[in-house]
Each structure stands twice: as C-alpha cells, then as structure tokens.
Amino acid sequence: MSEEHIEDLNEVMKARRAKLAKLQEMGVNPFTYSFDRSASALTILEQFESFENKTVTIAGRIMSLRRMGKASFAHIMDVSGRIQIYVRLDRVGEKSFAVFGLLDIGDIIGVKGTVFKTHAGEITVLADEVELLSKNLHPLPIVKERVEDGRKITYDAFADTELRYRQRYIDLLVNSQVKEIFITRSRIISAMRRYLDERGYLEVETPVLQPLYGGAAARPFTTHHNTLDMTLYLRIADELYLKRLIVGGYEGVYEISKDFRNEGIDRTHNPEFTMMELYVAYKDYHFMMDLVEEMVNFICQEVLGTTSVTYQGQEIDFKAPWPRLPMFEAIRQYTGLDLYAKSRDELRRAAKTLQVEIESFWDGGKILDEIVKNKVEPNLVQPTFLCDYPVELSPLAKRHRNDDRLVERFESFVAGREISNAFSELNDPIDQRQRFEQQMTLKEAGDEEAQMLDEDFIHALEIGMPPTAGLGMGIDRLVMFLTDAASIRDVIFFPTMRPEK
RNA sequence: GAAGGUGUAGCUCAGCUGGUAGAGCAGCGGCCUUUUAAGCCGUUGGUCGGGAGUUCGAUUCUCCCCACCUUCACCA
Question: Which of residues 245-264 of A touch strand B (CB under 7 A)?
C-alpha cells in the first residue's frame, strides 16, 4: 500500500482517494469492524406489509446513486438482492449528509431507516442514519437495467469474458445471474451429498498427491516433494484409493473433490475439475445405473423443482428411466455397421469408411472408442446410458458376465456429452494384473494416457475386494446442464487462465 | 497444437481507402428534497494489448510477441 504510486492512478481513482482522505479528516473510519443488521433486502421486499413504517437496519454495496441536491436515491445490494434507500438532508442531518455526499457507487454502507413506498411505487428505506462501512477505491462497471414489457434490458453489461473470469468478484457483483449460477452449483452439490448421506454412504478423503497416478486415462500434473525428494502426481482420479477402502471393509464410500488432468482447455475441459466418485460393495453396474438416474432426478427436483431443462436451446428431460443402449447396438443404429467381434484390421477399414481418423498404434478398442465418440455420442441428446464396452478400453472394469469380450461398464450422456462413467469393478487380482500389463504395452507403444501398474492396488485386490459397483460423475458438466451454461468456465469461479503479462 | 476472430477512456462501443482519437454511461464542478437507464449546463480523462518495421506521418499497412473468444485437434 505504501508503495502505491498515486500519480499512476487514473482520475477516477484519484478522486476516490481524495474522498477517502476527506472522510478521514471528518473523523469517519472508512473501513469499519462490524455492523448489526435486522433484515435483508429481499425479506423487506417480500414482506413489505409487515415492514411498512417499521425501522430496519440493512447493509450492502451501493450499486446506483441518484443525487438531487438535498436528497438522494440509491440502490444497495446485499446477498439477497437490491433495495432502494432514500437519504434526505433534513432527516440525516448536515454532517451525515455531507458524508453521504462523499460516497460512491461501490461503497459498502449500513443504513438505519423506515420502510415505505415511493410515489413511483418502489419499496424504499428512508434513512435516519447512514454509516460508511468500507470505501470503494477502484470504480465498478456501471451496469444499468430497465424493465420494459416485463423484459429486462441491460445497458453497458460487463461482458468481456476475460475480465469476467479474471476478476470474478466484479462479475459476481454486477452480473446478478452469475451469482445465481454459483448458488445453483452449491445446491447441486449439497443435494448430491444429501442423497448419498441419506443412503448411508460415507464421505471420505483420499490423497491428492500420489506417487503413482491411476484410475483414468489421462496425462497428469507432476510435482516434487522436497524432503522426500520424490516425484508426486496430482491425482487424475480417486478410484484406486477408494477401492482400497472397500477392501478395508467400508461398504459404501464417496468423495467429491478436484481431479487434475494435464490436457487441453476448451469449453468442456478445465485442468482442475470436480468429480464425485462412489463405490458400493455387493452391487453391480445395473444397480449403479438405477442410482445415477435416481440421484440426478433427486438433484433436479431439489434444485430446480423439475426434471426438464432447456440446455442451449435443446429440451432435455432427466426423468427416469433413461434408455440403456449397448455400445455395439448403438454403433449399428448410428452407422449401420456391425462391429462386434471384428479384428483390428476390419475396424480400421470401418473407421476409414466412416471417415474417422485413427492413429497407427491404436488397438481395436481405441479405434472403436473413436468411432463411438464421433458417430454415436453426438446423437445422445436425451440422457442415455451407453453400456457394455469392449474390454480393451476399460482396464479396471469387470468382464461382462455373458460376454468375455465386453466389460460391465456404462457411461451416461446428455446433449452428446459424458456426465458419468461406471462399472462393475474388476476384483480379480490376476485379471487386473494382466490388464495393467496390457496398458504398459500400450504405453510403450506411445499411448501417453495408458495406465501405470499399481502393485499396491493389486496387493489390495489380493486381500480381497467384494463385488463392487463404482461411479464417477463430472460435477462441472452436471452443473452446466442444470444452469444452461455453454462453457465450463461459467460454472467454475476461477477457471485456469494464463497469467496477464 | 492449427485456423479464424477480437484487443481503442473505469464500463459498453464507433473510428471508411494511413493525417497522431470520438460517443454514451461512470467521474469532476454547478442546479435540483419521492427519483429510478433521473434530468439540465459545464468539464476531465486515452503510451488505440506490447515490440519492431514501412512512411514526412501508423489506431489504421507489414512482421513478431501476449491475452481472450470460436472452430478443429487433443481430452471425459
């Protein structure tokens, strides 16, 4: 603060500081300690009849200011909303009115006054006392709104996406719908917790820093521990640790946490994102499909009061049950080709026919995955379970009870995007070792996302894991669907950005 | 990683084929005691993302760099 160069500040900021100095000369502390409130803006607006002509104390940030000589109107905003205040010289006295004259949009104030309705019909607090609580020194974007024919028209919206993400605190202040999105996000997560807690699942925490990463196909972030002098990875998934807890005797555990994947950024991917993983003993993937449907329905009802939403112009209904579409049937349906039990070369030809680009080192599973990604997934607009994946794609999933080529796995899709991934967990340690070894082969062949062999995890399986169903659900994407957000950055407070130079 | 787009006052934007910048809002001064995108009068404010080049002269043309957006690639 002492290093601040006043001469570098622009005119507006200089004016703010001049006012700050003036206020201090007048004996006003511009950064106070606390303030007792008796009501929020919203409760006064909603319960006007019981507040009319009563005294209230409220606090909030000045968001608009209309001075008219010896009287002023302003809107102040607290977490619940905005309410107008009316400050008159003859009511607050000369000193207070002079202090009020030095206030700006962006200042945080406390007001004691009487609730009434103006001639124009707006519920307003007629101030008896106004107290500055925190001075604004950097001007806020001024966003003005007008209601015409019931529609809200916004003038000079704070719309620069880069600034909105970098300075989210401003975005939250001036774009009211942004605050709503994040409140909805919170409610979604808390509804999910409630659903899981009510069913007796135990919320747990497992390591973020891991000597071996696993549980998903992804490139990790690497870091280093000084004292141990060892490389550690930021987790790409919780899976292998949560399954160790099932081995340890818990019968239902879940974790809601950040995972980190060192990959591209676009509107559905952020390097750190929130994942919910759940493992339930003695259950299989059929149980997990039922659970996903039911849990998402529960969340929709709790948060939105309905299961149908509009996402980017598309009507989507989460109402259970969702279709359960075996992968090879889906491929038949959307490409006309039957790719079941085809050789790698046959799959290559199919990819070529379908104009799906593939890499030379890919095995049959990976080629299939690419075909599904391009030809099937975009069609899955309404919530759908795509199930029964080829075994090569799922090194941690259990073989299908009726088909050795497949695993008991499903992913759920909405608007062409995956929101969950689950399977009957592989608990045969011998099979698991072979799958890991196959992954190692892929890794050597150049697949950077192939998984690493985790001896301790196999050791755990050798101790014995009950049959278990496991689930991973991307929270950010779920939030996107329920808030109609086009970009993952709209549902993450502080998305990863390059630093400003 | 590739292609395209954008970057001008605190905010939202305008600036045609090069002549060193404008508007509205905000700010500042004045008038105004039920206004509300308050109004009226006056006024301040910009290394035109950064750097280099071409030119008598660059916000405008060229090149490099930076950030963001979109699409693709990659990725759940």
Answer: 261, 263-264
CATH for A21: 2.40.50.140
Residue A136's region, left for phi above 0, alpha for psi from -120 to 50, else beta, is beta
User: Is the CB atom of residue A474 positioned under 7 angstroms from any atom of strand B?
Assistant: yes
Measured between alpha carbons, how far is A334 from A396 in angstroms, rounded to an integer?
A: 28
ipTM topping 0.90 = no
Residues A297 and A410 in one domain: yes
pLDDT in tens, A453-499: 999 999 999 999 999 999 999 999 999 999 999 899 999 999 988 87
A94 touches strand B (CB under 7 A): no
**In CATH, what number is assigned to the domain containing residue A448?**
3.30.930.10
Instruction: Report the nearest residue to nucleotide B68, CA vs C1'.
Output: A162
A421 Cβ contacts chain B strand, under 7 Å: yes
* H-type alpha helices, A102-206: 161-166, 168-174, 176-198
Q: Which of A356, A362, A410, A366 is nearest to A384 (CA)?
A: A410
Is strand B within 7 Å of residue A146 (CB)?
A: yes
Is the same domain home to A134 and A161? Answer: no
Q: From the alpha carbon of A123, which nucleotide's C1' atom is closest?
A: B34
